[in-house]
């Protein structure tokens, strides 16, 4: 598999996808046509146009999956697949409704590059359970694409005691996830990403890095360039209380 999983699509002070343009270009080297999956947002035409404009300098033609009478068939012939961010519940519901869960799995297993950002990164996990989003719709299942055997939490935020927020922090929520599921979670801070090439998995992006949460262990800080390939051998155990 060839995956690029971005925590976010827009970095402060920069244009859409600008912060990861070199990484995207490297992954899509030789690709001329890409299918974009825009179902996480309501304005699918506008979203697809935004992606097309961002990838135009790379010489890549973008087609929205929503424009096809048979979206799964379109995915079946794709040179690359990009699943965009937005609301992950809405996105997953649409993937199931249009038969895209199996279609994307099969295409990526065949070696086609997959890019995910935010909600699209959530989709690469086995399940939706570590999203930050509000469940504005109800998908038929929390089962996602399962391109990785562990979970990711995009847009990971560190605790900020100075804000006076009395609710749960992101770290506390992920620790609660681990109380019920024995599955590692990588918290991707803004400006970071995971890159998978076959059996190698590395962390990229800015110096802030990521945090690895595992049952029975303290959260571990990860820096850019960290080799996380061992996570590809994980066997996730969901609904397995500590």
Structural class: alpha/beta
Instruction: Give the topology string: H per helix, E per strand.
Output: EHEHEHEHHEHEHEEEEE
Strand content: 15-25%
Strand elements, count = 11
The largest pleated sheet is described as: 7 strands, mixed
Q: What is the end-to-end distance?
A: 32 Å
Q: Low-confidence stretches at least 5 residues in length (pLDDT < 50)?
A: none
Biggest sheet, spatial arrangement of strands:
3-2-4-5-1-8-9
What overall geometry do the principal axes of the alpha carbons give? globular
Q: How big is the Rg?
A: 17 Å
The number of helical segments is 7
Report mean pLDDT, rounded to a whole number: 96
Question: Can you describe this structure?
Answer:
- The protein is of the alpha/beta class.
- Helices cover 25% and strands 19% of the residues.
- The protein has seven helices and eleven strands.
- The strands form two sheets. Strands 3-2-4-5-1-8-9 form a seven-stranded mixed beta sheet. Strands 6-7-10-11 form a four-stranded mixed beta sheet.
- The longest helix is centred in the N-terminal third of the chain and has 12 residues.
- The chain is globular and about 45 Å long.
- The relative contact order is 0.16.
- The mean pLDDT is 96.
